[in-house]
Specification:
Oligomer: heterodimer
Strand order of the largest sheet of chain A: 2-1-3-4-5
CATH superfamily of the largest domain in chain B: P-loop containing nucleotide triphosphate hydrolases
Number of strands of chain A: 5
Radius of gyration of chain A: 27 Å
Number of helices of chain A: 15
Order of helices and strands of chain A: HHEHEHEHEHHEHHHHHHHH
Structural class of chain A: alpha/beta
Distance between the termini of chain B: 40 Å
Helix content of chain B: 25-40%
Structural class of chain B: alpha/beta
Shape of chain A: elongated
Number of domains of chain B: 2
Strand order of the largest sheet of chain B: 6-7-8-3-9-10
CATH class of the largest domain in chain B: Alpha Beta
Order of helices and strands of chain B: EEEHEEHEHHHEHEHEEHEHEEHEH
Largest sheet of chain A: 5 strands, mixed
Low-confidence stretches of chain B: none
CATH architecture of the largest domain in chain B: 3-Layer(aba) Sandwich
Mean pLDDT of chain B: 89
Mean pLDDT of chain A: 83
Shape of chain B: globular
Low-confidence stretches of chain A: 177-181
Bound molecules: adenosine-5'-diphosphate, magnesium ion
Amino acid sequence: MKTGSTVWQRFVAILSKEFIHMRRDRTTFAMMVGIPIIQLIIFGYAINSNPKYLPTAVVSADNGPLIRTLTTGMKNSPYFEFLPGRPTEAQAKRMLELGDVQFVLHVPEHFSRDLIRGDRPHLLLEADASDPTAMSNAFAAMNTLVTTVWQRDLQGGANMGDYVPSPVDLRIQAKYNPEALSQYNVVPGLLGVVLTMTLVMITGMAITREREHGTMEALLATPAKPIEVMIGKIVPYILVGYMQVSLILIMARLLFGVPFLGSVVLLLVSAFFFIIANLTMGILFSTLARTQLQAVQMTFFFFLPSLLLSGFMFPFRGMPQWAQYIGSCFPMTHFLRIVRGIMLKGNGIIETADHLWPILLFTLVVVALGSKLYRTTLD
Amino acid sequence: MNKELVIDVRGITKRFGDKTVVNGVDISVQRGEIYGFLGPNGSGKTTFIRVLCGLLKADGGGGTCLGYDVLTQSDEIKLHVGYMTQKFSLYQDLSIEENLDFMARVYSMPGRRQVVDAALERLGLANRKEQLAGQLSGGWKQRLALAAALLHKPQLLLLDEPTAGVDPKARRDFWLEIHKLAQEGLTVLVSTHYMDEAEQCDRLAYLAYGNLMVNGTVAEVVANSGLHTYCVTGGDMQKLVSLLDGKYPGLQVVPFGIKLHVFSRDTALLERVAAEYAKDDWQWEKSEPALEDVFIELMNRAKDNYA
Ligand SMILES: Nc1ncnc2c1ncn2[C@@H]1O[C@H](COP(=O)(O)OP(=O)(O)O)[C@@H](O)[C@H]1O
Ligand SMILES: [Mg+2]
């Protein structure tokens, strides 16, 4: 068909032009690739950080040899460093609040007796989790420790068989930040951060640049329709978005061994909606911005609250109610949950769809606003 | 019968907010004509051209461009119009060839490669086709922009101050090219501030504050101005300017190189002044009003009426 093929030709014209711009504009291209890599390495370093000898207080009514075996084992793990003396419950609580200790180990009464009897006594490890990455290794060490540390003491005991998987009921209580327990939370979050920042900014700039340079006028004087211009400009950045997603996922896997429990396809499909949401936001900004600088400023106006209120920087449930309401408006909040869900919990379509519709709703609202503001002429 | 009208619009009006930028302008341009568009900065020339090719919607008036309705058929109009914007509007980070290729694609030109190669050849840029457009000099940029605007073989060429900031040689070459194109039947609407360019146009229109002040051939515009001019030579021109300028309402004084043009629509006033200052080596001689005199007088009159 004649008209169909001319529309297609114009689309290809704009698309290939956009790719040439991208190739020539080294700085922007470096930014699109560089930002994910740099952020991943910076945050990755934080993930990888493996602090040792963290200050620990022991609250215990039981001072038997089995407890000493445990504390020695913990000391050698070597994540724990014990403060001298035995604080009271109240003192220990205060120390944790003040940040004087990272952990408080609570040993209940009759612990040794119950342990020998095979009654699986409780053992509570309280942690200050405001810096979750600091502790995950300590937790992991503690988990293995309790299954092995008393092996010699309890050897030959009649109930040895019952001690699998562990002779005690270890409870870990992360205070202040119960949500952000996993060290891997950061990488999924980074997907949202990088996509939001680069895509909103770059589409905003790509369109305002044409207006600023006066090329939009010549472009609109050709048979190319504004909608074709728009789509021709968006598509290359969808590809850029996917390039960034792949880059982050591959690096997260290779460098930091972040697990991926769910379906990759599901993640990529969800990412599509998120990418579109950000691109439409960029276009909306470009209808408002007169210059590229304004487009960048608007991007930050959008990016910062996304970053701060999405649960990436601060645990979502820990924020005041009003902040949670605002945070829920941003697609990044929902995308973060989707990615964490798929990667870390192995969530499927049903759970994912729960967070997909707010992103879709956001996109629809932005498109509606944008088409109201978008000028098909130069007025 | 008259020659076919390529542009035929009446009462074109465009407002931005409550500011009327183009106010009821009627223009008709015949096929093959070079039509000059003059007027001070901000008089609405660019806006009018944008309305013509559908980049802006007129708030009032209407008519046809290439036989298509300017209000409703801008898609068809765009297909047959070549528009060279006031600002260089090719992509600076694309090469010469890529720019032309982009244009050829956007217009869905059949035989794209040959069209682009032919354009490069004609421009004399075939051996520099990989150079980025942004690195070209002003004159070359202008030639490239013209080539891009002509690539799809338009019937109407809209040129918005095409020679601003271009050296005199390039300017002359550019106009030779325009004449050649007009000869081949292309219609050209060109806005300019240069009098020598205005004088090369078949017909002109003068716009001030959005109002069409006059239109017609150069001779008609001069004849209809109702101006009478004296050309003064010799003596101290600075002194004469300071003696006359602003002292006599309706009298204009404009230096022309070492000469001074003194003109007015009021013959009695002009004769009185000429008699009074025919001293101190100043020689007064009656002359034809120059086009520039006419425009300056129009601009001052427009200022009194509209500003
Ligand atoms: N998009 C716009 N919005 C508001 N005012 C505009 C716009 N475009 C032009 N104008 C105003 O319209 C007037 C005429 O501008 P223009 O058509 O560019 O004049 P010219 O080309 O004759 O110099 C100017 O005062 C200008 O500021
Ligand atoms: Mg102008």
